Automatic annotation (TrEMBL):
Record: active site: 1226
Name of the protein this chain belongs to: Aldehyde oxidase 6
Binding site for [2Fe-2S] cluster 1: 19, 24, 27, 49
Subunit comment: Homodimer.
Residues given in the record as Mo-molybdopterin binding sites: 732, 763, 877, 1044
GO molecular function: 2 iron, 2 sulfur cluster binding; FAD binding; iron ion binding; oxidoreductase activity
Pfam families according to UniProt: Ald_Xan_dh_C, CO_deh_flav_C, FAD_binding_5, Fer2, Fer2_2, MoCoBD_1, MoCoBD_2
Annotated cofactor note: Binds 1 Mo-molybdopterin (Mo-MPT) cofactor per subunit. Binds 2 [2Fe-2S] clusters.
Similarity section: Belongs to the xanthine dehydrogenase family.
Record: residues binding [2Fe-2S] cluster 2: 89, 92, 124, 126
Domain 2Fe-2S ferredoxin-type: 1-67
Residue positions binding FAD: 224-231, 314-318, 327, 388
Residue span(s) of domain FAD-binding PCMH-type: 196-380
Length: 1294
């Protein structure tokens, strides 16, 4: 693939490996080709991970390094994304840059729609997308609210995060030219067949249709590869081997476009972007009634895959892949399209119910080739609809998709022809032929459609255990999508004056235009020195390097001599005894060794809280306890050989009985990690007797994959003497990595040095998991005496490393008629997985935050970590708090519904007020929490918008709006006091430059940037003189994990301590030469033998929690915030859009507003994903289905709130942290639940229309499936529900 060629052969490591399947955009590059026919050059963005190098003959490839660097000049795209604060961890940034760059090469002044389309295929887990979009927005001709008809600018006289007037202008004349030799090559008619030979596969690229036909006839099983978006993933993820691949990209007949009086023949080789562009060009040239099918296809093409996928995937390939949930095939089939195929002769084949035979199979013979596709014009009175529903609005496979066509008798509502096809309702694209028969020759009215719904329900039946699950939802979608088409058709008949009836509601698409947002923060004091950077919105110190691809991540480190690559072999069973046979793997070419538990010289187990966790499962001794548990590791000379070797390892299993998967299983079998925690205040039992009303409920919260863009990566190098090892790892806790390797190898810690330059996202997933993986890598390095690199593929990372803990919450609440909650009893069951990891501490943090912002006098909490046969779950941003508080807020929502009062009123009534004490007897002042609440209500115009939402809901039946406002009180620092330490080492060199090292790791949260600001203030020098290279255990020992939103608090104070020591040492020099320069002072200090190196240390607060007494001081202080969200929900499909979000956050005095606002936005979007979008699906046997971005959807650009306002609470101080700031990395994740509760509010409005009132169940995440079914529309009510226990579900409800 192009990606491995760029990274390994050319050492162009700016292009990143994110997923390997074209789903994340981290590997985006630009391909340019010369078109001899038109003498033009086309530029398009592609995923390098899917693009075979053989396919690039005659093309120019531009990578992020090619458009600009710090050594030459940076490109305006790189500059604007960096200076607009659109790069945090930076791993996704080169891909973002290249997607935008490719757009600008084609359209130097794009629209906002162009930008969001271009970025739709690029995922970011850090920023929340707003700053990326704002940086790209500056290329638009119109990018201010004043151009939209506004008078005064919304940004007047407010401090800005960046100044767009300082940006380099975009000058298209200065771009790289297309290589002239490639133009000459393309124009020469001397085309030759190209053949490439690999280790196991040959690749042939013919030049004529005759040659292609001959090749295919001789090799009917050889796949044709155009965009490699189908064959490529099969080879990579399913291990499919094709001895021969035919690539017809140079066969010109496959790209011909022929216009006829009946329609247009489009070459099957045309990529989907070309097809979309062609149809968009043709549609305005003909009367509207002739282009119904064209416009339907355009609608589907906009949402089919990403721009990068559409730029290479071919029309013919899309048809021939015959995917059951194809977006195009139902529309092509409904539209009476046909294909021209060739083998020994030519024939035309209609795309109809007979064309798609079974999963991935069509009626065509293996040797037949689609040459072109006929897309007909439509007739007057003919309407075509194309509708889809997908887990995410863009770049996601459809759950259900449909193409529908109806043709009416002249000037009548009587149906002459009708054609309805669905995708996602079986193993193929299916025709609803019986439903069509029930409609044809009848008038298009409610009676006919009502009968059609019943026929459709019988015709498209799905068994309850159908692959893909969501059976009830998928069946309801078939009805609701037909109903939507009905509304479209009625509207068009009305416009043609065929009918004059009063129409039902016209359903318009959900709003999608991203608007300019506000980021409000305080100016620094006028008295502050202009050279003092603290409090100013300074760009992330590595942002430019990240945008140019020069920033070095673990896997970017150049290969060392003799380096080997490692792949792990994992269990395929959840609970079984194993026997291992590695003999076949050892015989394969390139395989050097297989590492098993027997090779570990030291400890093979880690003991936490009295429970053991194995590094590698011991064959014939132990059993495996989850799918994905590491059994052994294969070490080989290349990644490919290591992977092949891993596939050759044979494991025999003897299944053990009764695996435990769900919290309910664990409760039934009493499978828990002890101790279980309990905390209470007051007397809940007695209080329940005095209340006006009692209510019991429960809510289930699913887990969440970290999906850091850089997968777990490490490189272990044996130094060669005295058992010394250098370790380069993507780790949030270098010290634990060092200690774990030392224990595993049975050597002292002083022989292991762990280096962390930067991490491409961590979110808690690289705290305890990385040391385990690094330990296995170290065993391989020690055994082979060679450097070993280990980089997990995305699917393996998701399978092995666990996720956020799923939690089942059950509650009983007692309350008064005036809204006061008097007592609450809550039980929390977290699914810990098969080892304890940090699960016990997470349960404790859940219980410590169970009160959130509310003073409930009688409160009882019980927490248990369930021991199950799933991969071990681990820490994740928020550390249990997003799950725990969610249960409290859901309970309060239920109380509000039962009392018939707005939820915000119930929240306000029960909030802490005045000097307060938590349920664990910690005193605090809620003043700033209440200020955040009140200010957010004002800033969001809550009361007026609430009225507008109610009015909208009265006027709309099938679309509803919802609003929610929620508070957060989040405890900062580790309750385990020893983890609050910080260390630093600061060197001043003779030239005056300063090198700072500290114990925190940079993972996008901007800790190095803030530390640089601290050192600048304390040493009174500009940040340009200060450099931070890496975090390493040989400079700062015994560091604590960079976690708990405490990294800057601890390490910033340590750096401050070291810098103050140095500055005081220089005092005599300054007194002697008060007007001297910094450099002259340092020079003089050296000659006067003053030490220019100092360590810094900060012990941190002495925090503790006594669980026996149920009291303590587990937190240094609280970070407060409030979020108001408004959503618009499509009740027929469950799709929603976050219309507006307003966040008011108290973070004391921000050290760096741009970094802190970035953290707030990123955390909010991660919370939005947790509560509304992201679903981990496990098979009934414990296998994780969702192992990559094609199955697991994190928020994308399309999920960003259309208005995303962030306000930092002014005039706030915090005496407990550096420069009066507050930790902010984690707290805001929970406020993403405001979107969940806004959806729930919209669902309640929909249920009200159906006569349903009172509390209802809506588990998290509130996916389109759950939201749609909860709306309880007439269509969902038609679907029979299968009785639980009567079938084996496709996926477990974890």
């Amino acid at each position: 693939m192009l990606l491995s060629f760029l990274r390994e052969k050319l050492r162009l490591t700016g292009t990143k490996y994110g997923c390997g399947g074209g789903g994340c955009g981290a590997c985006t590059v630009m391909v340019s080709r010369y078109q001899p026919a038109t003498k033009t050059i086309i530029h398009y963005a592609v995923n390098a991970c899917l693009l075979p190098i053989c396919q690039l003959h005659g093309a120019a490839v531009t990578t992020v390094e090619g458009i600009g660097s710090t050594k030459t000049r940076i490109h305006p795209v790189q500059e604007r994304i960096a200076k607009a604060h659109g790069s945090q961890c930076g791993f996704c940034t080169p891909g973002m840059v290249m997607s935008m760059y490719a757009l600008l090469r084609n359209k130097p002044q794009p629209s906002m729609d162009d930008i969001t389309q271009a970025l739709a295929g690029n995922l970011c887990r850090c920023t929340g997308y707003r700053p990326i979009v704002d940086g790209c927005r500056t290329f638009c001709q119109a990018n201010c609210c004043q151009t939209n008809g506004g008078g005064d600018c919304c940004l007047d006289e407010k401090p800005q995060l960046f100044n767009k007037d300082e940006f380099l202008p975009l000058d298209p004349t200065q771009e790289l030219i297309f290589p002239p030799e490639l133009i000459l090559m393309a124009e020469s008619s001397n085309l030759k067949t190209l053949t490439f030979y690999g280790e196991r596969t040959s690749w042939v690229s013919p030049t004529s249709l005759d040659e292609l036909v001959q090749l295919k006839s001789s090799n009917p099983k050889a796949p044709l590869v155009m965009g490699n978006t189908n064959v490529g993933p099969d080879i990579k993820f399913k291990g499919v081997l094709h001895p021969l691949i035919i690539s017809p990209t140079r066969v010109v007949e496959l790209f011909d476009v022929t216009h006829t009086a009946q329609g247009v023949w489009v070459g099957a080789g045309c990529n989907l972007s070309e097809v979309q562009s062609l149809l968009e060009k043709l549609a305005p040239q003909f009367p509207k009634e002739k282009t119904e099918l064209f416009r339907a296809l355009i609608r589907q093409l906009r949402n089919l895959g990403s721009q990068q996928i559409r730029n290479v995937a071919s029309l013919g390939g899309n048809i021939m892949s015959a995917y059951p949930n194809s977006d195009l095939n139902p529309v092509l089939a409904a539209g009476n399209c046909k294909v021209s195929v060739v083998s020994n002769g030519r024939r035309e084949v209609h795309l109809n119910q007979d064309f798609f035979v079974s999963f991935g199979k069509t009626v065509l013979k293996p040797e037949e080739i689609i040459v072109s596709v006929f897309i007909p014009f439509t007739r007057e009175g003919e309407f075509v609809g194309a509708l889809r529903q997908a887990p995410r609005k863009e770049a996601a496979f459809a759950t259900v998709t449909t193409g529908m066509r109806v043709f009416f008798s002249e000037r009548s509502r009587v149906v002459q022809e009708v054609s309805i096809y669905y995708g996602g309702m079986g193993p193929t694209t299916v025709s609803a032929a019986k439903t069509c028969a029930a409609i044809v020759s009848k008038p298009w009215d409610d009676e006919t459609l009502s009968r059609a719904y019943d026929v459709l329900l019988d015709e498209l039946d799905l068994p309850p255990s159908a692959p893909g699950g969501k059976v009830e939802f998928r069946r309801s979608l078939t009805l609701s999508l037909l109903f939507k088409f009905n509304l479209e058709v009625l509207q068009k008949l009305r416009e043609m004056n065929v009918i004059k009836d009063e129409l039902p509601e016209r359903i318009r698409p959900l709003p999608r235009d991203i608007q300019l947002s506000l980021q409000e923060f305080q100016h620094v004091s006028k008295d502050q020195s202009a050279h003092d950077p603290v409090g100013r919105p300074i760009m992330h110190r590595s942002a430019i390097s990240q945008a140019t691809g020069e920033a070095v991540y673990c896997d970017d480190i150049p290969k060392t001599d003799g380096e080997l690559f490692m792949t792990v072999v994992t269990s395929a069973r959840a609970h079984a005894k194993i026997t291992l046979d590695v003999s076949e793997a050892l015989r394969l070419p390139g395989v050097v060794d297989v590492i098993t538990a027997k090779d570990i010289p030291g400890k093979n187990v880690r003991t936490e809280f009295g429970y053991d966790e194995e590094l590698l499962a011991e064959s014939q001794v132990e059993s495996v306890s989850c799918v994905g548990q590491m059994i052994c590791a294969v070490v080989a000379d290349t990644r490919v050989h290591a992977k092949r070797g891993a596939a050759a390892v044979k494991i025999s299993y003897e299944d053990l009985p009764d695996p435990v998967f769900t919290a309910e299983d664990a409760i039934e079998k009493s499978s828990f990690f002890e101790p279980r925690r309990v905390i209470w205040r007051g007397n809940v039992t007695e209080a329940f007797k005095t209340v006006d009303q009692l209510h019991e409920g429960e809510i289930r919260l699913a887990g969440q994959e970290h999906f850091y863009m850089e997968t777990q990566s490490m490189l272990v190098i044996p130094v060669g003497e005295e058992t010394e090892f250098k370790v380069y790892a993507s780790s949030q806790w270098p010290t634990l990595t060092q200690e774990a390797i030392a224990e595993t190898l049975n050597i002292p810690s002083n022989r292991v040095t762990c280096h962390v330059k930067r991490i491409g996202g961590g979110f808690g997933g690289k705290v305890t998991k990385t040391p385990l993986l690094a330990s296995v890598t170290a065993v391989a390095a020690q055994k082979t005496s060679r450097p070993v690199r280990f980089v997990l593929e995305r699917g393996d990372d998701m399978l092995i490393t666990g996720a956020r803990h799923p939690v089942l919450g059950r509650y009983k609440v007692g309350f008064m008629k005036d809204g006061r909650i008097v007592a609450a009893d809550i039980q929390y069951y977290s699914n810990a997985g098969h080892t304890i990891d940090e699960s016990l501490m997470i349960v404790e943090k859940i219980l410590l935050h169970m009160d959130n912002a509310y003073n409930i006098p009688n409160l009882h909490g019980r927490g248990a970590a369930c021991r199950t046969n799933l991969p071990s779950n681990t820490s994740f941003r928020g550390f249990g708090v997003p799950q725990g508080i969610m249960i409290m807020e859901n309970m309060i929502n239920d109380v509000a519904v039962l009392l018939g009062r707005p939820a915000d009123e119930i929240r306000e009534i029960n909030m802490y007020k005045g000097p307060s004490v938590t349920h664990y007897k910690m005193e605090f002042s809620p003043e700033n929490m209440l200020r955040c609440w009140n200010e957010c209500k004002v800033k969001s115009d809550f009361s007026n918008r609430r009225k507008a939402v109610d009015q909208f809901n009265q006027q709309n039946r099938w679309k509803k709006r919802g609003m929610a406002i929620l508070p957060i009180k989040y405890g900062i620092a580790f309750a385990e006091g020893q983890f609050n330490q910080g260390g630093a080492l600061v060197h001043i060199y003779k030239d005056g430059s300063v090198l700072v090292t500290h114990g925190g790791t940079e993972m996008g949260q901007g800790i190095h940037t803030k530390i640089q600001q601290v050192a600048s203030r304390e040493l009174h020098i500009p940040t340009s003189k200060i450099y931070i290279s890496e975090t390493s255990t040989n400079t700062v020992p015994n560091t604590c994990p960079t976690a708990a939103s405490f990294g800057t608090d601890a390490n910033g104070m340590a750096v401050k301590n070291a810098c103050m020591t140095l500055y005081q040492r220089l005092e005599p020099i300054r007194q002697k030469d008060p007007k001297g320069s910094w450099e002259s002072w340092i020079d003089a200090a050296y000659f006067e033998k003053i030490s220019l190196s100092a360590t810094g240390y900060h012990g941190g607060p002495d925090l503790y929690m006594d669980w026996d007494k149920m009291e303590g001081q587990p937190y240094a202080y609280f970070t407060y915030g409030t979020c108001c969200c408004e959503v618009e929900l499509d009740c027929l499909t469950g799709d929603y859009r976050t219309v507006r979000t307003d966040l008011m956050v108290d973070i004391g005095r921000s050290v760096n507003p741009s970094v802190d606002i970035g953290q707030i936005e990123g955390a909010f979007m991660q919370g939005l994903g947790l509560y509304t979008l992201e679903e981990l699906k496990f098979s009934p046997f414990g296998l994780l289905y969702t192992r990559g971005p094609s199955q697991y959807k994190i928020p994308a650009v399309c999920d960003t709130p259309l208005r995303f306002n962030v306000y930092l609470l002014p005039d706030s101080d915090n005496p407990h942290a550096i420069y009066s700031s507050k930790g902010i990395g984690e707290p805001i994740v929970f406020l993403g639940s405001s979107v969940f509760f806004a959806i729930k509010d919209a669902v309640a409005a929909a249920r009200s229309d159906s006569g349903l009132v009172g509390p209802f169940s809506l588990d998290s995440p509130a996916t389109p499936e759950r939201a749609c079914l909860a709306c309880s529309s007439p269509f969902t009510k038609k679907i029979p529900v299968s009785k639980p226990g009567s079938f084996k579900p496709w996926a477990l409800n974890i």
